[in-house]
Amino acid sequence: MIPKIAVIGEGVIGCTSALQIAKAIPNSRITILHDKPFEKSCSAGPAGLFRIDYEENTEYGRASFAWFSHLYRTTKGAETGVKLVSGHIQSDNLESLKQQQRAYGDIVYNFRFLDDRERLDMFPEPSKHCIHHTAYASEGNKYVPYLKNLLLEQKVEFKQQEVKSLDEEPKILKEWSALRPGRKHVRIEAQKRTTEGKGKEYTVVHHYGHGSNGFTLGWGTAIEATKLVQKALGLM
């Protein structure tokens, strides 16, 4: 029996989830449902600069960083939208920068605090403290279409249609445009449901709440979401 799996949303999280599932369950039939063209979605705009806001998500970010590193080494950036960039974050609050260090200091490249000479020489209005690091950026208008091409190669189907009820596929609570709902802990959870009337059981795997860290955490969180899909199908 061929497992049938629906992924709702063709943004970075939807495409990343579908790709992980396709790799883990190669005999599955996957359909990605989206209610608008990709160009009008939230994922089409962000530059996707790697940054982890909460330490609880560090390991998800680590897995994503390894994926970006692989893409950077093996595929042209013009195709994937992945590139290396260096920059600084200034703050008068030392603890806020130490939190950044704890969240991803050992993941990115060249993470360090600037000394006083560098800080005073480089900035016209320097803050009391400043960090430097090098990390990957994944441009949404290139990176997500790249993922989509990988999915098409895996025979994943894309279908533009509004999903009014999960009973029809795998209930929309509300709609939004260009907003990025966030949680301190990304929601990755399997939930058993039953269709009204027919009483047919199905499983919903929730995978959302990345806020501004969707590109940073998406690959890592998709790995965890895929494990729940496999478990729901009795493959683990």
From TrEMBL:
It comes from the Eukaryota. Its cofactor is FAD. The lineage of its organism: Eukaryota, Metazoa, Ecdysozoa, Nematoda, Chromadorea. One of its GO terms (molecular function) is D-amino-acid oxidase activity. Keywords: FAD, Flavoprotein, Oxidoreductase. GO terms for cellular component: cytoplasm. It holds the Pfam family DAO. This is CBN-DDO-2 protein. InterPro entries: D-amino_acid_oxidase_CS, DAO, FAD-dep_OxRdtase. The keyword ATP-binding does not apply. Residues 4-169 form the FAD dependent oxidoreductase domain. One of its GO terms (biological process) is D-amino acid catabolic process. Signal peptide: none annotated. Belongs to the DAMOX/DASOX family. The keyword Iron-sulfur does not apply.
